[in-house]
Fold these 2 entries.
Entry 1:
Amino acid sequence: MPTVYITRKAHFNAAHRLHNPDKDDAWNEATYGKCNHANWHGHNYDLEVTIAGEPHPETGYVMDLGRLKRIIREAIIEPCDHRNLNMDVPFLKGIIPSAENLVVAFWQQLEPHITEARLVSVRLWETERNVAEYRGH
Amino acid sequence: MPTVYITRKAHFNAAHRLHNPDKDDAWNEATYGKCNHANWHGHNYDLEVTIAGEPHPETGYVMDLGRLKRIIREAIIEPCDHRNLNMDVPFLKGIIPSAENLVVAFWQQLEPHITEARLVSVRLWETERNVAEYRGH
Amino acid sequence: MPTVYITRKAHFNAAHRLHNPDKDDAWNEATYGKCNHANWHGHNYDLEVTIAGEPHPETGYVMDLGRLKRIIREAIIEPCDHRNLNMDVPFLKGIIPSAENLVVAFWQQLEPHITEARLVSVRLWETERNVAEYRGH
Amino acid sequence: MPTVYITRKAHFNAAHRLHNPDKDDAWNEATYGKCNHANWHGHNYDLEVTIAGEPHPETGYVMDLGRLKRIIREAIIEPCDHRNLNMDVPFLKGIIPSAENLVVAFWQQLEPHITEARLVSVRLWETERNVAEYRGH
Amino acid sequence: MPTVYITRKAHFNAAHRLHNPDKDDAWNEATYGKCNHANWHGHNYDLEVTIAGEPHPETGYVMDLGRLKRIIREAIIEPCDHRNLNMDVPFLKGIIPSAENLVVAFWQQLEPHITEARLVSVRLWETERNVAEYRGH
Amino acid sequence: MPTVYITRKAHFNAAHRLHNPDKDDAWNEATYGKCNHANWHGHNYDLEVTIAGEPHPETGYVMDLGRLKRIIREAIIEPCDHRNLNMDVPFLKGIIPSAENLVVAFWQQLEPHITEARLVSVRLWETERNVAEYRGH
């Protein structure tokens, strides 16, 4: 049976700031530059979630995409959309919201819910020029 | 010698409907929702075909892209473009035209013609938010 | 007071066919070519609706975009999405669903609902290469 | 002599919040919904500035695009990029940063610097689905 | 009867160089910078041609788009694609190939052929960030 | 520790021509067609560079993206932008500038500079429809 990969895109807008509270201001400014700005900045984040599995012979689906869309919405979009990633999202508490750390945290939120297929990639576009991806290991 | 991956994009417009004729209407409605609508709906499908091989020292080409374009056109675009994927395409007879099933069927159409390189991926964008990919196994 | 133009995008997928039932098959085939194919084809339609007005001093809004989104959804997306534009849409009965005729029909559906601003443009992308626009006159 | 329109795109990331400080929380919540969230949210803003004029016979330019790029950078991008539009931008003080109000404010910043051509449009994409435009009157 | 605007996109790749042969090297270097580089550079040009007219009651078309596509191909794409805009295109002889001058020259090539509708805009994207438009006056 | 993949995009415009100087004109014309045109053509090249590594616990970064941007600029963009890939770029001397050969050459330019992470992919879009990728082996 063939393995097919399905990618679903989603979108959210959020404020964030790169800042390590264990470090002083000079370290943060030197490390993060304008991304450390105290009054926040923000992004239109584009999220791509890829799952893999065998298409079911009766449905032709690897997984019901409506269900995948709801999982992404409940696990990621609702807690993050129009929010402050440093302050408002319970599962990001204590995490510096770099794109790298976000894709790892998003993977951990999504994976327990995707039972009928295998999660293989979480990609996050922070801008049109920067993308981070986590593949689970 | 290095292996280089070449992706060529193509495009077609088609009508389709998700419907399993072995199941009753209630099952189809519950499984496919609005994608089961009796009078069809349609998409602008974007197709990405990736091949791999070593660039030939005399040409710098893994494969002549004009030839790849013609293979894609003859194997996929001409039979599918401005057609009904459930009714009109000989190689899709008996196949529920989900994106998953389409990428597997497209792979089977393309692979015998790509003799000078290795087919490694067939991706199909059904909408801007949904993509299916088959990698041949 | 300045006039500001606000554009909201929406999306739907539909089947259609270009066919004038008052003409014979030869005329239809000669006029529409593959767009006349009997078993339908379809598109991912992108719709852009532009309104104009003065930003309200208390809100900074020309019009509440959530309300505009709902008007577009109820007037256009719900009747057309995952439907057959020739067969299923009451307000398109008797209309050949060319992009030209669609933008005029969509304008007529939208305009009565946009009372707090002025409708100035309805644009419809049938493919990435073809767009039709109606400006109301 | 022909009039030619030149559009230059630019980009910035910023945090903002829709909030009218002269109104109470209930009014703000009812008017702006999630855009009123207290801890800010943010966007990748895409800006399009269009100027018009006659191409100079010696250069073929309506205006040196490098100069236009610098004007946009100094007047808009540097004060707004990676900033909080409610708190950090001097020329936005006292302005609710809706896309409507932003395009009017950006016009006022740009126009005095564009002396060799006529400013005709400032467009701002707040998301891929929402655009505001001001044409100067 | 309503007026509808139809835009058709096309694409070509070409080499060019901004250089005024009536001026010396210092003037050209100061005016055009890296766009003056002696050994050429090039672009993927995206062209948008907009026509306007009333949809014909029998066809729903302002103009047959297949015919518009052929006009654009014969008038612009075939002479310019994979060519050097300074050296190879007869209708550009003696013209500095700035985007401004190109859209005016393209208009003059297209207009005589568009007899069943009114040409209203020729837009040329030189890069994703720069666009020139000519509206015929 | 998780491995995260970071992709950074960059852009340059260049002229080129596919031509093997060891072969005669008939061979070149037969092999490359319009890409062999003597007076050059050109492209807007989009480059995507992907690196992989573990996010640093103190910064949340796999690698400072500002540093990656500078490496790409100095190694690729500055030597290639607004240049002729056959004539002007020292590290491309003797290389037929097909997309395949370019991604291998770009890899060799980039890899020595990326010391804090692992280079995993170099992708080059020659047009919107053609992409070449090299993964280092």
Entry 2:
Amino acid sequence: MSNSYGKLFRITTFGESHGPAVGVIVDGCPAGLDISHEEIQHALDRRRPGQSDITTPRNEDDKVTILSGVFEGKTTGTPIALAVNNRDQHSHDYSHIQHAFRPSHADYTYTAKYGTRDYRGGGRSSARETVARVAAGALAIKLLQKYGISVNAYVSQVGKVKLRKHYTKLDLSKIDANKVRCPDGKTAARMIGVVEEARDNLDTIGGVVSCVIQGVPAGLGEPVFDKLHAELGKAMLSINAVKGFEYGSGFEGVSMRGSEHNDQFYTDEAGNVRTRTNNSGGIQGGISNGQDIYFNVAFKPVATILQPQQTINDAGEDITLKGKGRHDPCVLPRAVPIVDAMAALVIADFIMRQQANKV
Amino acid sequence: MSNSYGKLFRITTFGESHGPAVGVIVDGCPAGLDISHEEIQHALDRRRPGQSDITTPRNEDDKVTILSGVFEGKTTGTPIALAVNNRDQHSHDYSHIQHAFRPSHADYTYTAKYGTRDYRGGGRSSARETVARVAAGALAIKLLQKYGISVNAYVSQVGKVKLRKHYTKLDLSKIDANKVRCPDGKTAARMIGVVEEARDNLDTIGGVVSCVIQGVPAGLGEPVFDKLHAELGKAMLSINAVKGFEYGSGFEGVSMRGSEHNDQFYTDEAGNVRTRTNNSGGIQGGISNGQDIYFNVAFKPVATILQPQQTINDAGEDITLKGKGRHDPCVLPRAVPIVDAMAALVIADFIMRQQANKV
Amino acid sequence: MSNSYGKLFRITTFGESHGPAVGVIVDGCPAGLDISHEEIQHALDRRRPGQSDITTPRNEDDKVTILSGVFEGKTTGTPIALAVNNRDQHSHDYSHIQHAFRPSHADYTYTAKYGTRDYRGGGRSSARETVARVAAGALAIKLLQKYGISVNAYVSQVGKVKLRKHYTKLDLSKIDANKVRCPDGKTAARMIGVVEEARDNLDTIGGVVSCVIQGVPAGLGEPVFDKLHAELGKAMLSINAVKGFEYGSGFEGVSMRGSEHNDQFYTDEAGNVRTRTNNSGGIQGGISNGQDIYFNVAFKPVATILQPQQTINDAGEDITLKGKGRHDPCVLPRAVPIVDAMAALVIADFIMRQQANKV
Amino acid sequence: MSNSYGKLFRITTFGESHGPAVGVIVDGCPAGLDISHEEIQHALDRRRPGQSDITTPRNEDDKVTILSGVFEGKTTGTPIALAVNNRDQHSHDYSHIQHAFRPSHADYTYTAKYGTRDYRGGGRSSARETVARVAAGALAIKLLQKYGISVNAYVSQVGKVKLRKHYTKLDLSKIDANKVRCPDGKTAARMIGVVEEARDNLDTIGGVVSCVIQGVPAGLGEPVFDKLHAELGKAMLSINAVKGFEYGSGFEGVSMRGSEHNDQFYTDEAGNVRTRTNNSGGIQGGISNGQDIYFNVAFKPVATILQPQQTINDAGEDITLKGKGRHDPCVLPRAVPIVDAMAALVIADFIMRQQANKV
């Protein structure tokens, strides 16, 4: 029971990379929300393979079908099932990995856990599962729009190329202006160079996605275990290839003094409570304070490389694994809509949880 | 419903800093586990205030009472309730903070969320809640011992003083050998100096706790949303003052190439599957691979400082808040047993979840 | 993890019959609810042993302590812990049952499940656990009052003596007017006779508690698995000694024709949607329709009898078990506040769940 | 979030009567279970419309597709998605019920809850949702077979025709021997007559399904809230049209004396603990005792009748609703596989929960 996420706005995903379909049931989405097929498809298009020459050349159109829960253009309050068929799922040859444990893949751990695995592609461990998250996230994003809440993820680091500008200095409408999804054009160009270099070396490279959530009212998040940032952290860490999460001042904040780090409150001219700095990242005691929420998510380099690697097979014997196939040299550009989706799902859930308290 | 953690080995905590008691119900702890009052008390003693001159001078003995679930020295399978009375809960004067929103505290967010707050100390947002976690964690640690699993958290950074040694070069039996809980004596001495300097300046300082979990069998953790590291991340981020979490290669891993980062498998002389490097931090695809699990947790500087600060009151008016009371200049030493407890609770829960699959 | 109930208004109970205390954490109770110690105590007084000569003569005062979550007479939104100390928990001799499996008790099943059991009284299987439910229920009842919802359980059958009047013909304010808690005086007198006869024969007798919930707005309950009546059924069936649950037309309705059973809708003079009959018991498709909700709960005779019984011990050997101690000849009168509490907890939870949908 | 059932063996269903498909995700089914498409289809065939002249003449073949989670004939441990397309979902005319609140249907309550409803057929409130339960139940039944556990539901009452024989006197292999699914041929014939009479009168009739679960080991079920019979009760009450649940001695047991009702333990020749009577219905203190589990489920008459009925429309105006379409005069024969499925799902979940305790 680990394929569900969320308490009230809850998704359950299914599907492996080479089965007939991947999909999701969204249970708990409020009734009366306008949603079109196009809106869900648009989110999937931002994630789809083959969208540029720095992603996998594998070209899938990832067309979504709405199986239930939407009637006459509106959600009905009943479960919304969304499915995307996998193309050509029978056409490939997996004999080279059928018995291999690929380095830093989940082949070995799935086998250890289940005593078996679906060796076609990564099976369930494939990032193809995130299709379902992005489709569901489109509904959450729609709900957030009703509240004036926006979610903007972007690539802030690729390899050693790091975007130094604070998000408040960026034009977040420019995220999709280039193929690496970094809203700063110059940095984007350098990032693209790093990805191309990795690709041309038959290698891969990691990076960081940053995300800003604006318009969240004060009061979301639950004290103690389900703190807003703890759920955001879990949601991000559940994405394939993620190795770290920090919000607000993050790891850098640890070397600050309390007197530097504390965010002073003041009342602005409109009478709103604000803070002069935002080291808190918009969250205090696990609850939103009305300021911008921002966080960073670390992605490791993709494990699939097109070079030969030493490893073992499922008999424990040493083997050399040849790299083949069509893979992403860097997941960062396509991870952006996944971070958006998961962030939106977390906030949507907390909106509903806070609403429940208003009895 | 945010005061519970865990799916099968599940804790629910209660209590605020200045109410009659704090405590926990541990629901799902297997029957037949030997547990003594002393073992739980020992864990609490590592967390208790007043344990050294670099923690708060507030001296509480934090004596635990077992209210249920243990019979003749063994757990019975029924809920284990543990309570610790708060001393002197009526003796203090909170008039200076009754109407103030302390900077980077949860006063404002609790008020925004609930329309009210218990202004005595931090109420429920106080780190006193972690008493309950540490008490419950003692049971989880006991369960882990049956499986030969050890959890060792230690302080690896205070302010800018960072322990550069890899955990494999440390003697983890030395964690409690000094009052800052860094197993490297020289670094510990420098850290203590940093804490003392902050304290003497009526200020506070942050840091990092690192944690190593050894002996975890391959196969723990659930794919997709409840990945082992995602749950560890949530558990850590749920601890007061935590701002970030990373495991394995973490944020540094993002600038590595896949060919560098991938952990090659081999079979050791005993026939066990091992990896030559451990950038994966013992977890692949969200599931343990039998190698050591290790991670870092970032703690911000304590928000309560003994200096005057500008802020507002609950009428939105500017005020100057005077620092007073007895507080920790640095939470890191006392955070170590909390990290141990939360890590143990996560692993205990996944042991039970994996056991359930073995039908 | 079976000691919790409710999704948003959630209780977790602890304690066994002869441990130091029994109690409950109420997690999710909305902030700002007025609650006094007296209100909780009053509910417990309706349940307490020794309240009349047709209940157990064991006299316990069951005084409740509020450990957290209430500040200045109001709930704060944080977990509310309530505890009741057990008196004299060390004073009894249980050697006669230490190794016996009492007929129709849980001694054997607990041993089969856990490999051990707390043989003092029933341990966790004792109906003493319901102290915690009644205490928590007092909070739920308070929440329901805000919505104009009332819950009235009463004894409608003891042995073969059955109250034939429909609840609409009863004065529900008279439930506590007699010691058996049947609001019809004449029937109550006959029921008391039946209990006395059972008691005087060193035997026990079962019965039925009926319950009416009035003022529930249309729209509570969730379709499919968490139907309003399905949750009420589970809540009732979770009470010790309960053997059956039916709502609306119940088991009698099965022999009706659809044309008889269907409840016609009409609009009343005030413009409200009503039904001319109420075979639906106020629930259609699992969701309240605004009419009265009513249901019946079957209780078996108490298993503890003061007569000798044949059974086996934990070595599998035949033994004769002598009845002793002070026990209820009939649980029905004391079950009434437990049914009230569980019904209120279910409705409170669904109020919050429905509120969450109103985003 | 009410479209999921089960804690470890967990199903989430989707789909409305006239959308593109209905289906289910089974999350938590253990890996390595043999399952064929035919086994799932067989279960669905027992439920399908048009199977005899006493069910609805609407003929749907209800062909299932396995979308994920099964590889090379075995479950992989990952979520199993099953879908059944609805035929002809666009072909009908619903204008006669678009604005009507049909008596004893969920039209009014869904509208009250969600502010909208899918008026095509019953939408999500249609019993078509149970297709998903039966498909998922086939997997649970397969798991139970590994443990030697059998589930046998049958029709024990239709209208006033009641099967008087105790289940131990029946040949449970004969359940499918007639179209009403009562294993006693003579009683079956009388039941069929009652259904035909109702049908010919353009009316409907209710009844009772009884169920026997054999081979359950002692120790399943959780004390307090998740008692085995409480979960069975909830599962049954969640089925469309169910009005009551009783197990063991049930409602009849309330008029027994404790000395009559108690089940004496003895050790049989094989050394197994048994009880001489089984008023407990195989469950004591919420936990299975190794004896047969048996229970009854009351179904009301189908609300859709082919006679004109008085009701109101969504403007609150009186209308006469004409019956039309093809509907079941009695749900009982088709309810049998649904009861089987839900019972199997409950037991499968508890097997996994008990397994988790064995750490």
